[in-house]
Amino acid sequence: MTAQLNARGDVAVLVPAAGAGVRMGPGGPKALRLLADEPLLVHAIRRVAAATSVRMIVVAAPAAEVEAVRAMLAPIADVTVVAGGAERQESVSLALSAVPGEIGIVLVHDAARALTPPQLIESVAAAVRGGLPAVIPVLPVVDTIKEVGPGEIVHGTVDRSVLRSVQTPQGFRHAVLAAAHAAATDPLTDDAGLVEKAGVPVTCVPGSEFALKITRPLDLILAEALIRLP
Ligand code: CTP
Ligand code: MG
Description:
alpha/beta; two-stranded antiparallel ribbon
């Protein structure tokens, strides 16, 4: 069934999905690989479309797959599909260009976080709506983290209590994200990183175990188990 987006909503969600999926191993662009018989991107978009304040969804697809992705997503929701770029940041910038200025809140959400609950999307959007310029969902770091030097010699143990593992969707006031991307010089920084560099405060909100980034083959096995949970 086609989900109806909220025509009065104040949120656009950009979904970079143009990556190759190198760490997943051979098998084509990661966003198009199957999880429980459907592409990761389909799982992701279904959940984004179910978030109640979302008015617009823009997917950055692999350049060779734009038409295929349009056809794949048409039954799910009215999604705008653009060709992505060589780096994630470029894919996000290209998707951002499709968002009209009147939409006040822009979220950036990896297709690879295909099982992210609609509630997390709404909680990030709500925090931006409440006045924060930039919001990221995070989890505590579970492993002990060591700083190492040449020869794998340990220099020290990092205080875990001040560390957070960062997920998506990352949420921004539209103008804040647009300015950060316009000024971007380091293509490897995430969206919140660009905003930090511009001197804008970035605030953490609680993330979700379901928003894991499906990166390696083991993550797909974990996601297959999560999707079967009642
Ligand atoms: N992405 C993108 N354009 C790129 C690179 C990445 O839109 N040029 C997207 C991916 O499709 C993914 C998200 O950014 O949804 C997060 O990237 P990542 O998990 O690293 O995915 P891939 O780049 O596909 O994986 P890998 O790094 O293993 O190749
Ligand atoms: Mg990548």
